[in-house]
């Protein structure tokens, strides 16, 4: 037999063996549903009485079996914020969390805390509450090796206070924060932008405590990145609203906001920024091997200092942080839609 035919024969034999072996594995897999168990621990901190994008993030997280949601902290907004101008914003946020857990179901083990209703008085004086104590206790656990992420979709009051109270936790968790303005060498600010980004403005002292005074690892999703997370109104109608009680509830949160905008004479866009959803993308949707949110892009750069008025100051001695520049919104939203649909099967 000519050598080239022998080689081809061996290749075909190897391929057949591989295919037959794969078929056997596939047959076993179809008979034995995959069981996904937690690989990460997550503490969610969000202003859930404010922009309803946080409710989408929490619902998505609760439906994600690879992330163990250890607690949800309802946090405050800025004083007199249009979403919730009350003086009990944190309590209202915690109530929203409990309401959502009741709809999603299966969340009896998730503790809910109301954070502080006010910002820190300065960048060195922590607030004291049960949410701060829980962050510290969870970070100091020695009975698990699962990495801990504290994910914040609003201000940084509680995590800043925890870091000031017990600095040792900085080496035991990763902070993922939706907030901060654009870095001018990475992105251009949007039209009509505010110089102090919305979430940073909620508690500038807390941002200064985290960036200027702590050593905690930070994965930051600044304004130019979280504005990429656009869900269309057509998607809300077709992929969210029909999906049972949870889908109808989430849809109504956005519909209510759009209705209020129209009452004030503002034209509604065809899209809504689900800016908090990357908190799920970067924790629950990590790669199987070499676990990391590998489908999104970031720049590694020294952490800036935050000025008293909420601006970045160059800090060549700053620790290296991740600043996300591009997010895999396809994976993020398709996973959310699929999990909503699977709840009905």
From TrEMBL:
It comes from the Bacteria. It holds the Pfam family IU_nuc_hydro. InterPro entries: Inosine/uridine_hydrolase_dom (IPR001910), Ribo_hydro-like (IPR036452). Residues 42-260 form the Inosine/uridine-preferring nucleoside hydrolase domain. Keywords: Hydrolase, Signal. Residues 1-27 form the signal peptide. One of its GO terms (molecular function) is hydrolase activity, hydrolyzing N-glycosyl compounds. This is Inosine-uridine nucleoside N-ribohydrolase.
């Amino acid at each position: 037999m000519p050598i080239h035919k022998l080689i081809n024969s061996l290749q075909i034999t190897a391929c057949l063996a591989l295919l037959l072996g794969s078929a056997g594995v596939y047959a076993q897999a179809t008979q034995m549903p995959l069981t996904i168990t937690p690989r990460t621990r997550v503490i969610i901190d969000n202003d859930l009485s404010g922009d309803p994008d946080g409710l989408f993030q929490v619902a998505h997280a609760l439906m994600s079996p690879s992330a163990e949601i250890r607690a949800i902290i309802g946090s405050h907004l800025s004083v007199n914020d249009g979403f919730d101008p009350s003086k009990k914003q944190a309590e209202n946020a915690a109530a929203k969390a409990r309401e959502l857990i009741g709809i999603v179901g299966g969340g009896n083990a998730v503790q809910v805390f109301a954070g502080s209703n006010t910002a820190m008085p300065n960048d060195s004086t922590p607030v004291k509450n049960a949410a701060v104590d829980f962050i510290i206790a969870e970070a100091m656990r020695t009975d698990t090796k699962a990495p801990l992420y504290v994910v914040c979709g609003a201000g940084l009051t509680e995590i800043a206070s925890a870091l000031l109270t017990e600095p040792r936790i900085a080496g035991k968790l990763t902070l993922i924060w939706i907030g901060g303005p654009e870095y001018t060498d990475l992105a251009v600010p949007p039209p009509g932008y505010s110089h102090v980004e919305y979430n940073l403005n909620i508690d500038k002292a807390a941002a200064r405590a985290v960036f200027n005074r702590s050593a905690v690892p930070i994965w930051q999703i600044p304004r130019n990145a979280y504005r990429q997370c656009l869900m269309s109104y057509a998607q809300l109608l077709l992929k969210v609203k029909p999906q049972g009680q949870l889908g109808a509830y989430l849809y109504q949160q956005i519909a209510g906001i759009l209705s209020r905008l129209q009452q004030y004479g503002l034209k509604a866009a065809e899209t809504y920024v689900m800016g908090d959803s990357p908190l799920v993308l970067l924790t629950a949707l990590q790669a199987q091997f070499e676990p990391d949110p590998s489908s999104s892009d970031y720049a590694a750069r020294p952490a800036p200092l935050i000025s008293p008025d909420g601006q970045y100051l160059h800090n060549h001695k700053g620790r290296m942080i991740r600043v996300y520049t591009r997010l895999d919104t396809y994976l993020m939203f398709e996973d959310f839609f699929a999990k909503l649909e699977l709840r009905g099967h």
